[in-house]
Amino acid sequence: MLNSKNTNTEDLRIYQIIDANLDRAREGLRVLEDWARFGLGKEKYVEKIKNFRQILGKNHLEIYKQSRNHIEDKCKGLTHQEQINRKKPEQIISSNSGRVQEALRVIEEFSRRYNYELSKIASEIRYEIYTLEVDLLSLNKCKKSEEILKENDLYVITDHKENLLKIIEEILIAGVRIIQHRFKTGTDKDHLQEAIQIKNLCERYNSLFIINDRVDIALASNADGIHLGQDDLDLKTARKLLGYSKIIGISANNENDISNAIKHGCNYIGIGPVFETATKKNKKPIGIEKIKNLTKDLNIPWFAIGGINSSNVSYLKKNGLKKVALVSQLMNSEDPKEDAIMILNELSHEN
After folding, report:
1. What is the pLDDT of residues 150-183, one digit of tens each?
2. Who's near 182: CB < 8 A, 6+ residues apart?
3. What are 250-281's pLDDT values in tens digits?
């Protein structure tokens, strides 16, 4: 509770500090809340941040507000160059999280003698903000990856090649923005080294780098996500290990597997095989009509896969299969850059 002694000059100065920092904390929280609401669409975080604002508002006592004009703030209006440099959402998230944390620390220190309950509240919320900042940054990173998935129609899967890095760079130059890397022969040490090299290439061209199956290598190489088959690690466990900054794709070819993937929060689905394919010789093609039926109500990105090449892309598009995944066509191409450009043009062409 507030100290009931008559307010003196020192008390008023401290009340002024508490008042200013309650305003700062609530302003910073409002910035985070609006990004959680409009930028990420995450109701859970909107409610959490709103609750913090309401608690601080409830404890923003009239005596603090009345102290505002006790001493003129001669530093009012001061800015810093970094404020001008903050333009990206992640910069805004971090700076406002820091603003809230710092303001709450000031409140915690100066209100301890005068209003212990407020000091305790400030301390509890401050520790919550550390975790909240990480969560919002992770969700923001995932949101960016999801936007790339939505905006791009060609998904390229690697195969073992001696000149693999050169092939990947050629198709990235062509405009491909999604690469999934499959491991074949070699040690885990080799796999990780190769994954890091591909990740660096994808980063240079603002493209997604997704690892097939191996959660450990996805984490170690800082890949943007992972792709899992029905016999791989289950999605729920993968999400626990990866957190929410990474995207998770699932291979599925029936209604039950698709439903489970969506239920557990996958970011995209690979559906097929559409046609017979050399990379999955033991899998029977499910055909265009079945894929159309399976995907008619899907509201997340999905890619048709299996036996797709430059000769049938146009046919798939005419049948409503607008996003495709390719392996052999580009991995075995004599000119992967030109082939990628041709397929990208075909996919972007309006039928």
Report:
1. 999 999 999 988 899 999 999 999 999 999 999 8
2. 157, 158, 159, 212, 213
3. 999 999 999 999 999 999 999 999 998 766 66
> CA 222, 225, 229 angle in degrees (round to 5)?
135
DSSP type of residue 36: I
Beta strands in 59-218 (DSSP E): 154-157, 178-181, 208-212
Which residues constitute the domain of residue 32? 9-141
What is the rounded distance in angstroms from the CA atom of residue 154 to the CA atom of residue 157? 10
Q: How far apart are CA 227 and CA 140, in angstroms?
A: 20
Using DSSP, how many helices (H) and how many strands (E) does the chain show? 15, 8
DSSP letter at 38 equals I
For position 168, which CATH number holds? 3.20.20.70
Q: Are residues 200 and 343 in the same domain?
A: yes
Number of folded domains that form the chain: 2
Q: What is the CATH number of the domain that holds 36?
A: 1.20.1260
Query: What three-state secondary structure class fits 320?
Result: coil
- 131 shares its domain with 170: no
